[in-house]
Amino acid sequence: MLLPNRRRVENIEDVKEQIGKIISNNARKIESNLKVTVTEIQSLVSEISEFNDNWTNHPSIHRLAWINNPKEDTVKKITFEENIVLPDVSHDLELIIKMLNHMRESKNLKATKMPLFIHPDELSITYKEGKFPYQRITITSQIAIVFQKGRIKYVGVVIDRNYVLLQSKLIELFT
Questions:
Q1: What whole-number distance in Å separates Cα of residue 10 and Cα of residue 151?
Q2: Cα 101 vs. chain centroid, distance in angstroms?
Q3: Contact at 8 Å (CB) between 97 and 114?
Q4: Strand bridging mode 138-148 / 78-85
């Protein structure tokens, strides 16, 4: 169900503002469950670089991850970003998970418990396809935003191996 108080996103500032509100409303829960400050999550949000028209026209998921490459001599955060357009039907979290696992399986990847987030095997495929320049990586943190009818329906955050899924309130926590 879409939240009635959420207006449609029209630009990148709207997206960041709405995500910021969802995160702020859940700050205590995020900080106690992920053992990270809201500031680090807001830094992830600030990395979202461009508005994608699909967010207003099609159900879609925007995923962004900070990645470290242990082969590099210097420690630097590498940003990986992608947008996935879903079929144009109303989605609940269960249907989104089924669709994303179907997409994984069509690439000969195993289904996962939470395909909403980027997994190392997906990055391995993008490396082999020449779409990502790093082979051996570690995902340190990430955010996934689910858009439905131009509105943000879910926000998921991963820090290390712990994650939370948020709507206007905490809806799931896994560690």
A1: 9
A2: 15
A3: yes
A4: unpaired
Dist. CA 68–CA 76, nearest whole Å: 6
Amino acid found at 74: T
Q: Closest by alpha carbon to 61, among 48, 46, 43?
A: 48
- Which H or E element spans position 12? helix 12-25
- Alpha carbon 163 to its chain's center: 11
Cα distance between residue 31 and residue 142, in whole Å? 15
* Residue bearing tokens 């980027």: 118
Beta bridge partners of 84: 61
pLDDT value at residue 4: 46
Between CA 154 and CA 143 the distance in angstroms is 10
Distances, alpha carbon 119 to alpha carbons 15, 141, 142, in Å: 24, 11, 10
Nearest-angstrom CA–CA distance, 129 and 123? 10
Spatial separation of the C-alpha atoms in residues 17 and 171, rounded to whole Å: 20
Per-block average pLDDT, block size 10, for the chain (175 residues)? 64 94 89 84 92 94 90 71 91 91 96 95 93 88 93 92 77 53
Helix-strand-coil split of the chain, %, nearest 5 = 35, 25, 40
Residue 6 has a pLDDT of 63
